[in-house]
Amino acid sequence: MFISNAYAAGAAPAPDFMSFLPLIVIFVLFWFMLIRPQMKQAKEQRKMIDALQKGDEVITAGGIVGKVNKVGDSFVALEIAPEVVVQVQKHTIQTLLPKGTIKSL
């Protein structure tokens, strides 16, 4: 008397383009706001590392400031103080400084 009859649900509608539109919009936003800028930054970093030469002043990812003494295939010799040279991996070099920056520190 108080309970209504339960009927089986109809067939599910076929997915259409409008149901995928939010996913497509989210992917496009991720592409332009996250993926593309990171790819551009990584390309600039690779270009900077490939262009390293003796005499450049750099900062490593660990915060070491030094002058490039020697550039190898995967390592760079940095002079961090007079007569103090350390070997660091090329990919740890973060920033290329303008000439004369170390003297002003």
Q: How does this model look, in words?
A:
The protein has 105 residues and is α+β, with helices and mostly antiparallel strands. It folds into two domains: 16-51; 53-105, SH3 type barrels. 36% of the residues lie in helices and 28% in strands. The chain contains two helices and five strands; from the N terminus they run αβββββα. A hairpin with a 4-residue loop joins strand 1 (57-60) and strand 2 (65-71).
Layout of strands and helices, then pairs:
Layout: H1 17-50, E1 57-60, E2 65-71, E3 75-81, E4 84-89, E5 93-97, H2 101-104
Antiparallel strand pairs: 1-2, 1-5, 2-3, 3-4
Judged by helices, strands and strand pairing, the structural class is alpha+beta
Number of helices: 2
The CATH topology of the largest domain is SH3 type barrels
How many strand elements? 5
The value of Rg in angstroms is 28 Å
Main pleated sheet: 5 strands, antiparallel
Helix content: 25-40%
- How large is the share of residues in beta strands? 25-35%
Domain count: 2
**Uncertain residue ranges:** none
How do the strands line up in the largest sheet?
4-3-2-1-5
CATH architecture of the largest domain: Roll
**CATH class category name of the largest domain:** Mainly Beta
Mean pLDDT: 91
| Element order: H for helix, E for strand | HEEEEEH
Terminal residue distance:
89 Å
* Shape assignment: rod-shaped
